[in-house]
Amino acid sequence: MSRDAATRWDRRHAARGLQPRPPAGILPALAHLLPAAGRALDLAGGDGRNSLWLARRGLEVTLADVSTVGLELARQRLQGAGHPLRTVQVDLEDPADPWPAPLDTAWDLVLVSDFLSRPLLQAVPAHLVPGGVLVVSHPTRRNLQRHPHPSARFLLDEGELPTLVGELEVVHHDSDWRADGRHMAWLVARR
Length: 191
Ligand SMILES: C[S@@+](CC[C@H](N)C(=O)[O-])C[C@H]1O[C@@H](n2cnc3c(N)ncnc32)[C@H](O)[C@@H]1O
Prior knowledge:
By secondary structure, the protein is of the alpha/beta class. The chain has a single domain, classed as Rossmann fold (3-Layer(aba) Sandwich), CATH 3.40.50. 24% of the residues lie in helices and 27% in strands. A seven-stranded mixed beta sheet has the order 3-2-1-4-5-7-6, covered by helices on one side. α1 (3-16) runs parallel beside α4. It is globular, with a radius of gyration of 16 Å. The two termini are 29 Å apart. The protein binds S-adenosylmethionine (SAM).
């Protein structure tokens, strides 16, 4: 990612500011498949809407993102709700470093919501504890039928997601029009 792109995300986060936002629909919908304790990593977690849900569930959350503004909003969101949050500024699209060293822990849960990096997803299995879960929510190409953005290169092919998670056991995968009006693939896979 270029410095320009990081600045663009800083601007987007700053424009939205700290406002109440519901978590990604996958979290409450598939909560029964997710651990309620242990270490969680929210990759490209932005302003922390999902980290807050994970922390309320009982997980010890680390949020990684390239945007310093997003990280600051996330810290404020969780602090305001009385939950600790560890934040890490990282570029998750560096081809020379698909899994940055500060994230080098064995995680009980890794969440990737609305961020598509295929090399990053492929690196997750090696960083889960046995029994740990990967949770992914991302729009598919069918989303273009109703929304011009994100453009095709930022979208998943129909049925692609399970092919990106290596040896993990897929315990849930589906794609559908969701309550927020978008066509999303949802996946939960266990090591
Ligand atoms: C669409 S937002 C999704 C945020 C969050 N996961 C959610 O579901 O609300 C995409 C996020 O990816 C972050 N991002 C974009 N490029 C990145 C990169 N190269 N490395 C790390 N984070 C990145 C942005 O700052 C932004 O917070």
